[in-house]
Amino acid sequence: MNKTVALTGTTGAMGGEVLLSLLQSPLNLNVRCIIFEKEKRIPRFVKNTLKKYRGRIYAFKGDISRFDDCEELIKGADYVINCASLIPPKSDHDPAGTYQSNFVGTKNIVDAILASGREKEIALIHIATVAMYGHRALPHVWLRVGDPIISSDYDVYSKQKLKAEKYVLESGLPHFVSLRQTAVLHKYMFANNLKDGLMFHTVWNGTLEWVTDRDSGVLCKNIVEKDIGGKLGNFWNKIYNIGGGKSCRVTGFETFDRCFALTGRSAKKYFKPNWNIARNFHGGWFYDSDELEEILNFRSESMEDFWTRTGKKYGYFKLAKIVPASLISAFAIKRLFKNTNSPGYWLKNGKEGRIKAFFGSREDYEKIPDKWEDYPLLSEGKLEDGSEINYSELKDIKNAKPRLLNHGYDESKPLEELELADLQSAASFRGGKCLAPKFGKDALYDKVIWKCREGHEFALTPYTVLKGGYWCPHCCEPKPWKYGAIANIPFYGQVYFDSHSENEVDDVYPVFDREEDFIIKK
Protein backbone atom coordinates (compact mmCIF):
# COMPACT_ATOMS: atom_id res chain seq x y z
CA MET A 1 0.00 0.00 0.00
CA ASN A 2 1.15 3.55 -0.73
CA LYS A 3 2.28 5.57 2.29
CA THR A 4 0.19 8.49 3.51
CA VAL A 5 1.55 11.86 4.61
CA ALA A 6 -0.48 14.34 6.66
CA LEU A 7 0.45 17.98 6.05
CA THR A 8 -0.27 21.28 7.81
CA GLY A 9 0.47 24.76 6.53
CA THR A 10 -0.59 23.71 3.04
CA THR A 11 -1.28 27.22 1.75
CA GLY A 12 2.00 28.68 3.05
CA ALA A 13 5.22 29.35 1.19
CA MET A 14 6.94 26.20 2.40
CA GLY A 15 3.84 24.03 2.87
CA GLY A 16 2.73 24.50 -0.73
CA GLU A 17 6.10 23.37 -2.03
CA VAL A 18 6.11 20.39 0.33
CA LEU A 19 2.67 19.41 -1.00
CA LEU A 20 3.85 19.56 -4.62
CA SER A 21 7.09 17.68 -3.93
CA LEU A 22 5.30 14.89 -2.09
CA LEU A 23 2.83 14.43 -4.94
CA GLN A 24 5.63 14.40 -7.52
CA SER A 25 7.38 11.57 -5.71
CA PRO A 26 7.71 8.36 -7.75
CA LEU A 27 6.40 6.50 -4.69
CA ASN A 28 2.83 7.73 -5.43
CA LEU A 29 2.34 9.06 -1.92
CA ASN A 30 -1.11 9.94 -0.65
CA VAL A 31 -1.53 13.27 1.14
CA ARG A 32 -4.01 14.36 3.78
CA CYS A 33 -3.94 18.13 4.26
CA ILE A 34 -5.82 20.66 6.31
CA ILE A 35 -6.70 24.06 4.83
CA PHE A 36 -7.09 26.74 7.50
CA GLU A 37 -10.79 27.53 7.55
CA LYS A 38 -10.20 31.28 7.90
CA GLU A 39 -7.91 31.41 4.86
CA LYS A 40 -9.34 34.17 2.71
CA ARG A 41 -7.54 33.19 -0.44
CA ILE A 42 -5.89 29.94 -1.42
CA PRO A 43 -2.86 30.69 -3.62
CA ARG A 44 -3.27 29.70 -7.25
CA PHE A 45 -0.15 27.56 -7.01
CA VAL A 46 -1.79 25.46 -4.26
CA LYS A 47 -5.16 25.34 -6.06
CA ASN A 48 -3.50 24.00 -9.19
CA THR A 49 -1.66 21.34 -7.19
CA LEU A 50 -4.83 20.23 -5.41
CA LYS A 51 -6.66 20.00 -8.72
CA LYS A 52 -3.94 18.18 -10.62
CA TYR A 53 -3.40 15.48 -8.00
CA ARG A 54 -6.89 15.31 -6.51
CA GLY A 55 -6.96 11.53 -6.81
CA ARG A 56 -4.26 11.21 -4.15
CA ILE A 57 -5.29 14.10 -1.90
CA TYR A 58 -7.75 14.29 0.94
CA ALA A 59 -8.13 17.99 1.83
CA PHE A 60 -10.52 19.52 4.33
CA LYS A 61 -11.03 22.91 5.93
CA GLY A 62 -10.31 23.13 9.62
CA ASP A 63 -8.09 24.56 12.34
CA ILE A 64 -5.21 22.76 14.05
CA SER A 65 -5.98 24.65 17.24
CA ARG A 66 -8.91 22.21 17.54
CA PHE A 67 -7.91 18.75 18.69
CA ASP A 68 -10.59 16.90 16.74
CA ASP A 69 -9.36 18.45 13.47
CA CYS A 70 -5.87 17.16 14.23
CA GLU A 71 -7.30 13.71 14.92
CA GLU A 72 -9.00 13.83 11.53
CA LEU A 73 -5.82 14.98 9.83
CA ILE A 74 -3.61 12.13 11.03
CA LYS A 75 -6.06 9.27 10.37
CA GLY A 76 -4.14 6.54 8.59
CA ALA A 77 -1.03 8.73 8.25
CA ASP A 78 2.46 7.27 8.27
CA TYR A 79 4.12 10.68 8.41
CA VAL A 80 2.97 14.07 9.69
CA ILE A 81 4.74 17.17 8.38
CA ASN A 82 3.91 20.21 10.51
CA CYS A 83 4.60 23.34 8.45
CA ALA A 84 1.79 25.41 9.95
CA SER A 85 2.74 28.73 11.55
CA LEU A 86 1.48 32.24 11.75
CA ILE A 87 4.64 34.05 10.63
CA PRO A 88 5.72 37.72 10.54
CA PRO A 89 4.26 40.14 9.70
CA LYS A 90 0.89 38.57 10.57
CA SER A 91 2.18 37.20 13.85
CA ASP A 92 3.37 40.67 14.89
CA HIS A 93 -0.20 41.95 14.73
CA ASP A 94 -1.97 38.92 16.18
CA PRO A 95 -0.30 37.52 19.34
CA ALA A 96 -3.38 35.50 20.33
CA GLY A 97 -3.67 33.88 16.90
CA THR A 98 0.05 33.16 16.93
CA TYR A 99 -0.31 31.29 20.21
CA GLN A 100 -3.15 29.20 18.79
CA SER A 101 -1.38 28.39 15.53
CA ASN A 102 2.24 28.04 16.56
CA PHE A 103 1.92 26.40 19.97
CA VAL A 104 -1.59 25.01 20.51
CA GLY A 105 -1.69 23.58 16.97
CA THR A 106 1.62 21.77 17.46
CA LYS A 107 0.55 20.49 20.87
CA ASN A 108 -2.68 19.13 19.39
CA ILE A 109 -0.83 17.31 16.63
CA VAL A 110 1.55 15.69 19.10
CA ASP A 111 -1.28 14.76 21.45
CA ALA A 112 -3.33 13.35 18.57
CA ILE A 113 -0.45 11.11 17.53
CA LEU A 114 0.04 9.91 21.12
CA ALA A 115 -3.69 9.23 21.49
CA SER A 116 -4.02 7.42 18.17
CA GLY A 117 -2.74 4.06 19.34
CA ARG A 118 -0.35 4.21 16.37
CA GLU A 119 2.31 6.47 17.89
CA LYS A 120 5.05 3.97 17.04
CA GLU A 121 3.95 3.90 13.40
CA ILE A 122 3.72 7.67 12.80
CA ALA A 123 6.78 9.88 12.26
CA LEU A 124 6.45 13.60 13.01
CA ILE A 125 8.48 16.07 10.96
CA HIS A 126 8.19 19.35 12.84
CA ILE A 127 9.29 22.63 11.25
CA ALA A 128 10.84 24.95 13.84
CA THR A 129 12.69 28.20 13.09
CA VAL A 130 16.03 29.98 13.15
CA ALA A 131 14.20 32.82 14.90
CA MET A 132 14.47 30.86 18.15
CA TYR A 133 18.20 31.66 18.23
CA GLY A 134 17.41 35.37 18.38
CA HIS A 135 19.74 38.13 17.22
CA ARG A 136 23.36 37.35 16.39
CA ALA A 137 26.19 39.81 15.85
CA LEU A 138 29.96 39.76 15.62
CA PRO A 139 31.89 37.86 16.70
CA HIS A 140 29.31 35.05 16.99
CA VAL A 141 27.74 35.12 13.53
CA TRP A 142 27.85 31.33 13.11
CA LEU A 143 24.98 29.24 14.53
CA ARG A 144 24.67 25.56 15.35
CA VAL A 145 22.37 23.14 17.14
CA GLY A 146 22.83 23.46 20.90
CA ASP A 147 23.18 27.24 20.92
CA PRO A 148 21.02 29.04 23.51
CA ILE A 149 17.40 29.62 22.60
CA ILE A 150 16.77 33.38 22.91
CA SER A 151 13.60 34.77 21.37
CA SER A 152 14.12 38.39 20.32
CA ASP A 153 12.20 40.99 22.33
CA TYR A 154 8.61 41.43 21.08
CA ASP A 155 8.94 38.45 18.70
CA VAL A 156 5.71 36.60 19.45
CA TYR A 157 6.40 34.29 16.50
CA SER A 158 9.56 32.76 17.97
CA LYS A 159 8.12 32.95 21.50
CA GLN A 160 5.45 30.41 20.54
CA LYS A 161 7.66 28.40 18.18
CA LEU A 162 10.16 27.64 20.93
CA LYS A 163 7.36 26.47 23.20
CA ALA A 164 6.11 24.26 20.38
CA GLU A 165 9.47 22.67 19.65
CA LYS A 166 10.13 22.02 23.32
CA TYR A 167 6.75 20.29 23.55
CA VAL A 168 7.74 18.02 20.67
CA LEU A 169 11.12 17.24 22.22
CA GLU A 170 9.62 16.46 25.63
CA SER A 171 6.52 14.61 24.43
CA GLY A 172 7.98 11.14 24.41
CA LEU A 173 7.12 10.63 20.74
CA PRO A 174 9.12 7.61 19.57
CA HIS A 175 9.63 8.94 16.03
CA PHE A 176 10.19 12.66 15.43
CA VAL A 177 12.57 15.22 14.01
CA SER A 178 12.68 18.98 14.48
CA LEU A 179 13.99 21.02 11.56
CA ARG A 180 14.92 24.61 12.37
CA GLN A 181 14.09 26.40 9.16
CA THR A 182 16.14 29.39 8.07
CA ALA A 183 14.85 32.41 6.13
CA VAL A 184 13.04 31.19 3.01
CA LEU A 185 13.28 32.73 -0.44
CA HIS A 186 9.75 32.23 -1.72
CA LYS A 187 7.28 33.33 -4.36
CA TYR A 188 5.27 35.57 -1.99
CA MET A 189 8.18 37.68 -0.75
CA PHE A 190 7.35 40.81 -2.71
CA ALA A 191 3.69 40.85 -1.78
CA ASN A 192 4.42 40.23 1.90
CA ASN A 193 7.20 42.78 2.28
CA LEU A 194 5.67 45.62 0.34
CA LYS A 195 2.69 45.98 2.66
CA ASP A 196 4.16 46.00 6.16
CA GLY A 197 6.86 47.65 8.26
CA LEU A 198 8.51 44.23 8.55
CA MET A 199 10.52 45.36 5.53
CA PHE A 200 12.62 47.44 7.92
CA HIS A 201 13.32 44.56 10.32
CA THR A 202 16.32 43.29 8.38
CA VAL A 203 19.61 44.34 9.96
CA TRP A 204 21.97 45.58 7.25
CA ASN A 205 24.98 43.83 8.78
CA GLY A 206 23.04 40.85 10.11
CA THR A 207 24.15 37.50 8.74
CA LEU A 208 21.58 35.35 6.94
CA GLU A 209 21.69 31.90 5.40
CA TRP A 210 18.76 31.55 3.03
CA VAL A 211 17.15 28.50 1.47
CA THR A 212 14.65 28.44 -1.38
CA ASP A 213 11.04 27.33 -1.09
CA ARG A 214 11.57 24.63 -3.71
CA ASP A 215 14.54 23.12 -1.92
CA SER A 216 12.59 23.11 1.35
CA GLY A 217 9.82 21.15 -0.33
CA VAL A 218 12.27 18.64 -1.76
CA LEU A 219 13.90 18.25 1.66
CA CYS A 220 10.67 17.05 3.29
CA LYS A 221 9.89 14.76 0.38
CA ASN A 222 13.36 13.24 0.60
CA ILE A 223 12.90 12.48 4.31
CA VAL A 224 9.82 10.42 3.50
CA GLU A 225 11.36 8.68 0.49
CA LYS A 226 14.62 7.83 2.22
CA ASP A 227 12.85 6.60 5.34
CA ILE A 228 10.61 4.32 3.30
CA GLY A 229 13.73 3.04 1.60
CA GLY A 230 15.47 2.43 4.93
CA LYS A 231 18.25 4.90 4.11
CA LEU A 232 18.05 7.35 7.03
CA GLY A 233 20.06 5.46 9.62
CA ASN A 234 19.98 7.27 12.99
CA PHE A 235 18.38 10.41 11.56
CA TRP A 236 15.31 10.48 13.81
CA ASN A 237 14.79 12.05 17.26
CA LYS A 238 17.18 14.92 16.61
CA ILE A 239 17.28 18.61 15.75
CA TYR A 240 18.79 19.91 12.51
CA ASN A 241 19.28 23.35 11.00
CA ILE A 242 17.90 23.86 7.48
CA GLY A 243 20.05 26.18 5.39
CA GLY A 244 21.00 26.68 1.78
CA GLY A 245 24.72 26.43 2.45
CA LYS A 246 27.66 28.44 1.18
CA SER A 247 25.91 29.98 -1.83
CA CYS A 248 23.10 31.32 0.37
CA ARG A 249 25.19 32.98 3.10
CA VAL A 250 24.97 36.76 2.89
CA THR A 251 24.14 39.83 4.97
CA GLY A 252 20.88 41.72 5.19
CA PHE A 253 22.23 44.43 2.93
CA GLU A 254 23.36 41.94 0.29
CA THR A 255 19.89 40.41 0.32
CA PHE A 256 18.18 43.76 -0.28
CA ASP A 257 20.77 44.80 -2.83
CA ARG A 258 20.32 41.66 -4.92
CA CYS A 259 16.55 41.95 -4.71
CA PHE A 260 16.49 45.55 -5.90
CA ALA A 261 19.01 44.70 -8.61
CA LEU A 262 15.93 43.34 -10.41
CA THR A 263 15.05 46.98 -11.01
CA GLY A 264 18.51 47.73 -12.32
CA ARG A 265 19.60 49.67 -9.24
CA SER A 266 21.25 49.15 -5.86
CA ALA A 267 19.28 49.15 -2.61
CA LYS A 268 21.25 52.29 -1.75
CA LYS A 269 19.12 54.15 -4.29
CA TYR A 270 15.90 53.33 -2.44
CA PHE A 271 16.85 53.16 1.25
CA LYS A 272 18.76 55.16 3.79
CA PRO A 273 20.84 53.22 6.30
CA ASN A 274 18.91 54.58 9.31
CA TRP A 275 15.56 53.27 8.08
CA ASN A 276 16.23 49.71 9.29
CA ILE A 277 16.62 48.30 12.77
CA ALA A 278 20.09 47.87 14.26
CA ARG A 279 19.53 44.68 16.26
CA ASN A 280 16.90 42.39 17.86
CA PHE A 281 16.02 40.38 14.77
CA HIS A 282 17.36 36.90 14.01
CA GLY A 283 19.59 35.09 11.59
CA GLY A 284 23.08 33.76 11.16
CA TRP A 285 25.22 31.45 9.10
CA PHE A 286 24.76 27.78 9.97
CA TYR A 287 27.93 25.94 10.88
CA ASP A 288 26.05 22.64 10.69
CA SER A 289 23.51 23.03 7.88
CA ASP A 290 25.63 20.94 5.53
CA GLU A 291 24.91 17.97 7.80
CA LEU A 292 21.31 17.89 6.62
CA GLU A 293 22.39 18.23 3.00
CA GLU A 294 24.72 15.24 3.36
CA ILE A 295 21.81 13.13 4.59
CA LEU A 296 19.04 14.36 2.28
CA ASN A 297 20.68 15.89 -0.83
CA PHE A 298 17.94 18.50 -1.16
CA ARG A 299 19.80 21.56 -2.44
CA SER A 300 19.45 22.42 -6.09
CA GLU A 301 19.20 26.23 -6.02
CA SER A 302 21.57 28.94 -4.89
CA MET A 303 20.41 32.36 -3.82
CA GLU A 304 21.42 33.65 -7.24
CA ASP A 305 19.32 30.95 -8.91
CA PHE A 306 16.30 32.16 -6.98
CA TRP A 307 16.73 35.79 -8.00
CA THR A 308 17.30 34.76 -11.61
CA ARG A 309 14.02 32.82 -11.79
CA THR A 310 12.25 35.60 -9.88
CA GLY A 311 13.48 38.14 -12.39
CA LYS A 312 12.12 36.03 -15.24
CA LYS A 313 8.77 35.68 -13.52
CA TYR A 314 8.44 39.38 -12.75
CA GLY A 315 9.99 40.82 -15.86
CA TYR A 316 8.11 44.07 -15.39
CA PHE A 317 10.53 45.01 -12.59
CA LYS A 318 12.93 46.04 -15.33
CA LEU A 319 10.53 48.85 -16.19
CA ALA A 320 11.57 50.50 -12.93
CA LYS A 321 14.70 51.67 -14.75
CA ILE A 322 12.65 54.39 -16.45
CA VAL A 323 11.11 55.58 -13.17
CA PRO A 324 13.15 57.88 -10.88
CA ALA A 325 14.41 55.95 -7.84
CA SER A 326 13.12 58.72 -5.57
CA LEU A 327 9.54 58.09 -6.73
CA ILE A 328 9.79 54.34 -6.16
CA SER A 329 11.29 54.98 -2.74
CA ALA A 330 8.51 57.38 -1.80
CA PHE A 331 5.54 55.38 -3.03
CA ALA A 332 6.72 51.80 -2.42
CA ILE A 333 8.88 52.13 0.69
CA LYS A 334 8.52 55.37 2.64
CA ARG A 335 4.74 55.02 2.73
CA LEU A 336 5.33 52.10 5.13
CA PHE A 337 6.76 54.49 7.74
CA LYS A 338 3.16 54.86 8.95
CA ASN A 339 2.78 51.14 9.56
CA THR A 340 2.80 50.20 13.27
CA ASN A 341 5.51 47.61 12.57
CA SER A 342 7.87 50.27 11.22
CA PRO A 343 10.75 51.92 13.14
CA GLY A 344 9.59 55.20 11.61
CA TYR A 345 6.26 54.78 13.38
CA TRP A 346 7.91 53.93 16.71
CA LEU A 347 10.18 56.96 16.53
CA LYS A 348 7.40 59.38 15.61
CA ASN A 349 4.93 58.05 18.17
CA GLY A 350 7.22 57.60 21.14
CA LYS A 351 7.20 53.80 21.32
CA GLU A 352 10.21 53.86 23.63
CA GLY A 353 10.12 50.14 24.40
CA ARG A 354 10.40 49.28 20.73
CA ILE A 355 13.08 51.91 20.15
CA LYS A 356 15.20 50.56 22.98
CA ALA A 357 14.75 46.93 21.99
CA PHE A 358 15.63 47.45 18.31
CA PHE A 359 18.22 50.24 18.58
CA GLY A 360 19.52 50.38 22.15
CA SER A 361 18.11 53.85 22.76
CA ARG A 362 16.85 56.87 20.88
CA GLU A 363 20.34 58.32 21.20
CA ASP A 364 21.82 55.19 19.61
CA TYR A 365 19.36 55.52 16.73
CA GLU A 366 20.36 59.14 16.16
CA LYS A 367 24.00 58.07 15.81
CA ILE A 368 23.21 55.93 12.76
CA PRO A 369 24.41 57.71 9.59
CA ASP A 370 21.77 58.66 7.04
CA LYS A 371 24.22 58.44 4.13
CA TRP A 372 25.62 55.22 2.78
CA GLU A 373 29.10 56.64 2.36
CA ASP A 374 29.22 57.08 6.13
CA TYR A 375 27.70 53.71 7.01
CA PRO A 376 30.09 50.75 7.60
CA LEU A 377 28.78 47.72 5.70
CA LEU A 378 30.12 44.36 6.83
CA SER A 379 29.80 43.01 3.28
CA GLU A 380 32.22 45.74 2.20
CA GLY A 381 34.69 44.77 4.93
CA LYS A 382 33.93 47.68 7.27
CA LEU A 383 33.18 47.58 11.00
CA GLU A 384 31.39 50.11 13.20
CA ASP A 385 34.55 51.03 15.12
CA GLY A 386 36.20 52.19 11.90
CA SER A 387 38.37 49.12 11.46
CA GLU A 388 38.25 46.66 8.57
CA ILE A 389 37.64 42.95 8.29
CA ASN A 390 38.23 40.40 5.56
CA TYR A 391 34.65 39.55 4.73
CA SER A 392 35.56 36.58 2.54
CA GLU A 393 37.54 35.01 5.37
CA LEU A 394 34.69 35.68 7.80
CA LYS A 395 32.27 33.79 5.52
CA ASP A 396 34.61 30.83 5.05
CA ILE A 397 33.33 27.99 7.22
CA LYS A 398 36.93 26.84 7.64
CA ASN A 399 37.46 29.89 9.85
CA ALA A 400 34.20 29.58 11.78
CA LYS A 401 35.19 27.34 14.67
CA PRO A 402 36.73 30.08 16.88
CA ARG A 403 33.46 32.05 16.51
CA LEU A 404 31.22 29.25 17.75
CA LEU A 405 29.46 29.51 21.10
CA ASN A 406 30.52 27.37 24.03
CA HIS A 407 27.89 24.84 25.16
CA GLY A 408 29.58 24.02 28.44
CA TYR A 409 30.48 20.34 28.00
CA ASP A 410 32.79 18.12 25.96
CA GLU A 411 31.20 18.10 22.51
CA SER A 412 33.96 16.04 20.98
CA LYS A 413 32.17 13.00 22.39
CA PRO A 414 29.45 11.26 20.38
CA LEU A 415 26.03 11.69 21.98
CA GLU A 416 25.89 8.04 22.99
CA GLU A 417 29.12 8.44 24.99
CA LEU A 418 28.04 11.35 27.18
CA GLU A 419 28.35 10.79 30.93
CA LEU A 420 26.82 12.32 34.05
CA ALA A 421 29.83 14.62 34.33
CA ASP A 422 28.93 16.15 30.95
CA LEU A 423 25.40 16.91 32.14
CA GLN A 424 26.76 18.43 35.33
CA SER A 425 29.22 20.56 33.39
CA ALA A 426 26.50 21.83 31.04
CA ALA A 427 24.26 22.68 33.98
CA SER A 428 27.06 24.56 35.74
CA PHE A 429 27.70 26.62 32.58
CA ARG A 430 24.02 27.55 32.72
CA GLY A 431 24.33 28.62 36.34
CA GLY A 432 22.64 25.56 37.80
CA LYS A 433 22.91 21.88 38.62
CA CYS A 434 21.96 18.49 37.26
CA LEU A 435 20.25 16.59 40.08
CA ALA A 436 20.27 13.22 38.37
CA PRO A 437 21.96 10.60 40.62
CA LYS A 438 23.14 8.68 37.57
CA PHE A 439 23.03 8.76 33.79
CA GLY A 440 23.15 5.83 31.42
CA LYS A 441 24.27 5.91 27.83
CA ASP A 442 20.77 5.02 26.64
CA ALA A 443 19.06 7.72 28.74
CA LEU A 444 19.51 10.74 26.48
CA TYR A 445 15.74 11.05 26.02
CA ASP A 446 14.73 10.22 29.59
CA LYS A 447 13.75 13.22 31.68
CA VAL A 448 16.00 14.17 34.57
CA ILE A 449 15.70 16.89 37.19
CA TRP A 450 17.70 20.10 36.83
CA LYS A 451 17.98 23.10 39.12
CA CYS A 452 18.59 26.68 37.98
CA ARG A 453 20.48 29.28 39.99
CA GLU A 454 17.20 30.72 41.27
CA GLY A 455 16.28 27.39 42.83
CA HIS A 456 13.65 26.33 40.29
CA GLU A 457 13.63 22.57 39.73
CA PHE A 458 12.39 21.30 36.38
CA ALA A 459 12.38 18.12 34.34
CA LEU A 460 13.86 18.03 30.84
CA THR A 461 15.63 15.38 28.81
CA PRO A 462 19.42 15.74 28.47
CA TYR A 463 18.93 16.05 24.69
CA THR A 464 16.58 19.02 25.11
CA VAL A 465 19.11 20.81 27.32
CA LEU A 466 22.35 19.94 25.55
CA LYS A 467 21.22 19.89 21.93
CA GLY A 468 17.98 21.85 22.15
CA GLY A 469 19.58 24.82 23.91
CA TYR A 470 16.77 25.04 26.47
CA TRP A 471 17.06 25.67 30.20
CA CYS A 472 14.82 26.83 33.05
CA PRO A 473 11.23 27.47 31.83
CA HIS A 474 10.72 30.01 34.62
CA CYS A 475 13.82 32.14 34.02
CA CYS A 476 14.85 31.56 30.42
CA GLU A 477 11.67 31.89 28.36
CA PRO A 478 9.99 35.18 27.32
CA LYS A 479 7.10 35.68 29.71
CA PRO A 480 7.79 38.60 29.54
CA TRP A 481 11.10 39.12 27.70
CA LYS A 482 13.88 39.59 30.25
CA TYR A 483 17.02 38.02 28.87
CA GLY A 484 19.16 40.73 30.43
CA ALA A 485 18.37 39.20 33.81
CA ILE A 486 20.22 36.01 32.85
CA ALA A 487 22.96 37.64 30.80
CA ASN A 488 25.53 37.09 33.55
CA ILE A 489 25.07 33.34 33.11
CA PRO A 490 27.96 32.33 30.79
CA PHE A 491 25.77 30.27 28.43
CA TYR A 492 23.61 33.34 27.66
CA GLY A 493 26.03 36.20 28.20
CA GLN A 494 28.36 35.06 25.42
CA VAL A 495 25.70 35.97 22.86
CA TYR A 496 23.62 38.61 24.69
CA PHE A 497 26.47 41.07 25.14
CA ASP A 498 27.42 40.93 21.48
CA SER A 499 24.56 43.37 20.84
CA HIS A 500 23.63 44.69 24.31
CA SER A 501 25.42 46.85 26.84
CA GLU A 502 25.96 46.12 30.53
CA ASN A 503 23.33 48.71 31.52
CA GLU A 504 20.54 46.76 29.79
CA VAL A 505 20.43 43.83 32.18
CA ASP A 506 17.36 45.16 34.07
CA ASP A 507 15.17 45.84 31.05
CA VAL A 508 11.99 43.80 30.79
CA TYR A 509 9.77 43.96 27.70
CA PRO A 510 6.04 43.23 27.77
CA VAL A 511 4.50 40.20 26.13
CA PHE A 512 1.91 41.78 23.86
CA ASP A 513 2.10 44.60 21.35
CA ARG A 514 -0.58 46.67 23.07
CA GLU A 515 1.99 47.44 25.76
CA GLU A 516 4.85 48.21 23.41
CA ASP A 517 5.14 51.88 24.36
CA PHE A 518 6.92 51.29 27.65
CA ILE A 519 9.67 49.27 29.29
CA ILE A 520 9.00 47.67 32.65
CA LYS A 521 11.84 48.00 35.11
CA LYS A 522 12.47 45.51 37.89
Tell me what you see in this structure.
By secondary structure, this protein is α/β, with parallel strands linked by helices. It has helices at 13-24, 44-52, 67-73, 90-93, 95-115, 156-170, 189-193, 213-228, 252-260, 289-296, 303-313, 325-333, 343-348, 352-359, 362-366, 391-395, 420-429, 462-466, 490-496; strands at 4-8, 30-36, 57-62, 79-82, 123-129, 142-143, 176-181, 184-185, 207-209, 211-212, 239-242, 249-251, 285-286, 433-434, 448-451, 457-460, 507-508, 520-521. The protein has a seven-stranded parallel beta sheet with strand order 3-2-1-4-5-7-11, sandwiched between helices. Strands 14-15-16 form a three-stranded antiparallel beta sheet. The chain has a two-stranded parallel ribbon with strand order 6-13. Helix 2 (44-52) links the parallel strand 2 and strand 3. Helix 3 crosses helix 5 (95-115). The longest helix is centred in the N-terminal third of the chain and has 21 residues, at 95-115. The model is unreliable at 513-522 (pLDDT under 50).
Brief synopsis:
It contains 19 helices and 18 strands.
Poorly predicted ranges (pLDDT <50, ≥5 residues)? 513-522
Assembly classification: single chain
Fraction of residues in β-strands:
5-15%
Radius of gyration: 23 Å
Termini separation (Å)?
61 Å
List the helices and strands and how they pair.
Layout: E1 4-8, H1 13-24, E2 30-36, H2 44-52, E3 57-62, H3 67-73, E4 79-82, H4 90-93, H5 95-115, E5 123-129, E6 142-143, H6 156-170, E7 176-181, E8 184-185, H7 189-193, E9 207-209, E10 211-212, H8 213-228, E11 239-242, E12 249-251, H9 252-260, E13 285-286, H10 289-296, H11 303-313, H12 325-333, H13 343-348, H14 352-359, H15 362-366, H16 391-395, H17 420-429, E14 433-434, E15 448-451, E16 457-460, H18 462-466, H19 490-496, E17 507-508, E18 520-521
Parallel strand pairs: 1-2, 1-4, 2-3, 4-5, 5-7, 6-13, 7-11, 8-10
Antiparallel strand pairs: 9-12, 14-15, 15-16, 17-18
Helix pairs in contact: 1-8, 3-5, 5-6
